[in-house]
Description:
Layout: H1 2-14, H2 17-20, H3 22-61, H4 73-90, H5 97-102, H6 105-120, H7 124-151, H8 160-186
Amino acid sequence: MAILILGLVIFLGVHSIRLVAEPWRNAQVTRLGERGWKGLYSLASALGIVLIVLGYGVARRAPIVLWMPPAGARHLTALLVAIAFVLIGAAYAPASRIKQLLGHPMLAGVAVWAVGHLLANGTANAILLFGAFFVWSTTSFLVWRRRDRLAGTRYPAGTLLGDARVVVGGIVVWAVFAFFLHGWLIGVRPFG
Length: 192
């Protein structure tokens, strides 16, 4: 679990710098240049992901079961993860009312993804992994929404067509991941 915890600290820590130390971040960007900062940020993020994957894999070999997921949890998880894919897609799609409404749909999507996975997994390593992402994404979403409100930030108006593209695209990517890639990459087939 130590490797998993270290990976989470590195990955979520790097992704929290603007949240907790924006002046320091800006000073580093000035000192290193935009490319230098992005390079270090990317390396630290990649290291965090590698440690998370390794740590989670090691912990899965001897899981500590804290509770058994209720029957049907995987179906609810599938629905929540599909919604999460739509929300994450809205973060990058132009002309989406979803982005206009939420401001930070990726953070909302990560929170929904984490909740879905918390429902379907009762091992200590899963609760640590998905719980950490839930706490980070929810906290980040609330802080950024408050900052938006204080700054008077308004997101561009979206359209019904933009929303339709986000929903269809998110569902297609979710289906490919759920039915094909999840089993291959993660080793768990959500639908048996």
